[in-house]
Amino acid sequence: MCNPVYGMPGSRKIAESILADPHKLPLIVSIDCFINESNAFADYIVPDSHMYETWGWVAPWNGVPTKTSAARWPVVEPRTSKTENGEHICMETFILGLAKEMNLPGFGPNAIKDQAGMRYPLETPEDWYFRGGANIAFTGKKPTEEATDDDLSITGVERLVPKLKSVLKADEWKRVANLYAHGGRFENHSDAYDPDNRAWMRHRFDLPQLIWNENVGSTRNTLSGKFEVGCAAWREPSFGNGKPMRSIYPVTQWPFLLMSFKSTIHSSYSLDSSLSSLQEENPVLLNPRDAQRLKIKQGDRVKISTPAGSINSAVLIDPGVKSGVLAIEHGFGHRDLGARTIIINGTKIPGNPHARHGVNLNEIGLTDPTRKGTTLWVNSVSGACVRNGIPAKIEVQKV
């Protein structure tokens, strides 16, 4: 479900010049359950399953002091077609099918080896995810408990039992079933701290914190040739060759800085009417002092321009935004992902108007004017594309 054309500032220009040209990329294959702004350029889209139809094991990114592994198992059957052996087409079955056809090592009937040297198959998604569950079930001080009959019947995991038995050993499948019944495996909160020294976390960051990183400080920037700074420091926003952004786009012409943020009630996949009804569009947030100076009122339609283009949006006056800043929430203004009417095998599928609501800041994100061709403007420290601090201006639209 990667969608860089929608999610990366300035990337549409690159997509239209490269992805749309078969002489530059003669074959593009996408694996996705949706047609989005990026895979709309693909020659083939392999249908994938979404989170309610798939297996998975996930862990928190950060902020959780105990070991956590959450389990995901299909709650509904996918509506995708099936392979010859009855498996639903998805990312896993596609990759496994390719591997089998190409006779790649690490796949097939003897792909997985256990500690005793026994070999097991990797031919279905369950071969992978169930054995991953077994690893989680048996790790730590002692294995997890076996699932009871009540666990299986109350949670609905009983319908997984035939597959669990067909893949796992006799002493494994009930423990993995227990993980699915409880949503995963979660370390006790009391284990968050070191029992010998309660001032320390048990799972702490063991490496030293570097105030000065010699590896970074002794490395040259590959574009400018200058040494990187090996410690935390303020950097003036600049382009690839080191030229300051404001030397090319002065504040006299572009008095605002454009930034994006994400909401707690909306995402770029909140396309269903029951979800989008919570927030129909994403107005640009403007500081009250700027609004007063520009004679802009709440709800006015404005034109927001950057050196890369312009978009039209309503205004929400908000004192939480700094003066001189325009803030636009991410997750709106789709061109695809259901927004556009498409035809598949002669059947017309009307576009969803909810997906088109609002604007996408990344449509007017900058490319780097100091580099040849069309290149994303990236942060000189992190290498991430720049989606905050984009030079901009705002004009009231006459209705």
From TrEMBL:
Pfam families: Molydop_binding (PF01568)
Keyword entries, A-Z: 4Fe-4S, Iron, Iron-sulfur, Metal-binding, Molybdenum, Oxidoreductase, Signal
GO molecular function, one term: molybdopterin cofactor binding
Coiled-coil residue spans: none
Key word Secreted present: no
Keyword Repressor in record: no
Domain Molybdopterin dinucleotide-binding: 264-364
PANTHER family referenced in this protein's UniProt entry, alphabetically: TETRATHIONATE REDUCTASE SUBUNIT A, TRIMETHYLAMINE-N-OXIDE REDUCTASE
Name of the protein described by the UniProt record: Molybdopterin dinucleotide-binding domain-containing protein
Species per Swiss-Prot/TrEMBL record: Mesosutterella multiformis
